[in-house]
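Review the following:
>
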Amino acid sequence: MYRHRSLALAAVTLAAAASVPTPAAPQSPSAVPDLTDIAAFETSSLASVVNRFSSDLAALERKWAGMPNSAARHERMREFLDRWAEALEALAVGMDDVDGSIDHVLLSAEVRYRQELLAREERTVAEVGPLLPFGADILALLEIRHHGRPVDGQETASSLAALAVAVEGAEEGLKSGAAAGGAGPGGDGRSTPTPITGLRAVRVLQSYRSTLGSWYRHYAGYDPLFTWWAKQPYEEADRALGGYLSTLRTQVVGWPEGGEEPIVGNPIGADGMAADLAREMIPYTPAELIAIADREFAWCEERMLEASRDLGFGEDWKAALEHVKTLHAEPGGQPEVVRMLAQEAVDFVESRGLLTIPALAKEGWRLEMMSPERQRIAPFFLGGEVIRVSFPTDEMTHDEKRMSMRGNNIHFSRATVHHELIPGHHLQGFMNERYNSHRGLFRTPFWTEGWALYWEMRLWDLGFPTTPEDRVGMLFWRMHRAARIIFSLSFHLERMTPTEAITFLIDRVGHEPANATAEVRRSFNGTYSPLYQAAYMLGGLQIRSLHEQLVGGGRMSEREFHDMILRGGTMPIEMVRARLLGEAPGRGFETGWRFYGDPL
C-alpha cells in the first residue's frame, strides 16, 4: 500500500492535473474580520516608541548611505544609539504591563546589539584598511555631496585623477607582493591577507565604487563644468577600481576571472558568537548547542533505521533514502504536487483544531517556479506568500536535472510545503502584518524558522507521516537542521571549512553533491546572519518546550497556544515565553531559560 501511494504520486504530471485535489473555495473572502478581536491584541504601551526608533534609525541609515563604512557615519550612528540607550534606561514601564515590559527589554537589547554590530563594522574597516589605502580619498569626494557643498569641477577632476593613480599603485603593490611570495600591499613585508580578509575588502570596495558611481551621476550633465572637467578622470578612476577589484578577487580571494565565487564566508569568531547568542536570548555556549544537535541527530538516525527496516532496506538507511529520492514528479508536474500537499496540510491542521487559519491566508498564497540561477544557491523551496519551487528546467544539464528532481522528490516536498506555506512561513507573514507589527524590528530566525520547524516536529508527533517514505522525507530535513547547527557554528568558530561542511552534508545527511554545495554557499555568502541556520532547530526546540509546559501542562489548548504565538509578533522565544506566562521581564533581565536542560 505504501509503495502504491508513492508511485501514484510520483506519476503526477500536467496531463494528470485534473486528478489532483484542488484547494477548497475560500470562505467569504469579502468578510470583515472581528475588529474587536484585532484591537484586543494591540496591547503594548511601547509600540509607538518602537516604531519611532525604527523610523528614526531608517532615516539615518538612508541619510548616511552615501558615506558607507566611513568614520563619520560610525560616529553619527554611535551617537544615535548611545542616546537611545540612555533614554530607554530612564523610561519607566509598569511591572504589570507585560507587553510594554517585553518591548522595553527587546528594544534595549536591540540597541545594544546594533552598537556591537557597529563596532564589528569598524573592526572590519580597520582590518581591510591596508588593502584599501585609497579609501579615504573616495570618502573625501563623497563628502562633497553628503554635506551639500558646491562642487568645483577642476578640483574634483584633479582628485579623481590622483585617485586613479593611487588605485593603480595599490594594485601594482598587491601584485608584486603576491609575486614576492605573499608580502602585503607594496611589498613591505606585512602578513599575507587571507581569502576571508580579501573578501571583506572586496565587499567594502564594492560599496565605495557603487556609491562613487551614484555620486558622479548626481553631477554629470547637470553641472556642465563638472562634466567637462571630471568625465574622463572619473572613468579612469572607475576603470582602476574595477581592475583592483579583479586583482583582489583573483590574487587574494582565489576567485578566478569569469568563474563562480568561491565559498569563503565571513566567520565572526567566539566574541561575535557570544554577542549574537545574547541578542537571541540563548543561554547556551556553542559547544552546548552542538551537543544538542548531536542528540537530535542521533534521534533522527534511530527513526531512519526504523523506516529503513519497514521499507526492506534493513540497517542501510541511506539506501532507503536513495529509494525515496527516486519518487519524484515527472517534468512539469511539481506545481500540482505542491498545491495538493498545501491543501493536505491545511486540512490536517484544521480538522484537529490546532490553530486558527484566516480565510484570506488560505486564499492569498501564490506559486512561482525558481530560476536555474536562483537554484544554484537555493536548491529547495523558498516560502512565504509566494512559494518558490525548485525543479529542473530545460536549460539545466542532465546531472543538474536529476539532482534537482531527486532533491525535491514528493516525500521531501511533503515535509517542506507546510513549512513554507501553512502553518509555516506564509501564515506567519500574514499574521505579522496584522498583529503587533511594530515588533518587526525584533525579527529573528529563531521565531521565524523556529516556528516552521516546530510544526515539522508537531506534525510528526500527531502522525502526519503515514508511510515509511513520508517518515524518511521528514527525517531527512530534521537531520539536515541538526547538521546546520553543527556546521554553521563550527564555521563561525573557525573549526570547519566550507569544503568540510559540504562533505559533512553529503556523508552524514545524504545530500546530493550539488545541493550540499548550494546549501553551504547559501549559508555563508552573506545573505543570512551567522546564527540563521542554527535557528531552525533551536527555535523549534524552544517552542516545543513551551508547548510541553503550557499545552502538556493543561494551561492552554492547542489553538490558544498557537494563536497567541502568532498574534504576539516576532521576537526571541524567551520573550514569547514571558508573554504566554504573563510574566513581565524586569529591567535587569538576563537570559536564563535552559529550554533543553543540560546537553553535556
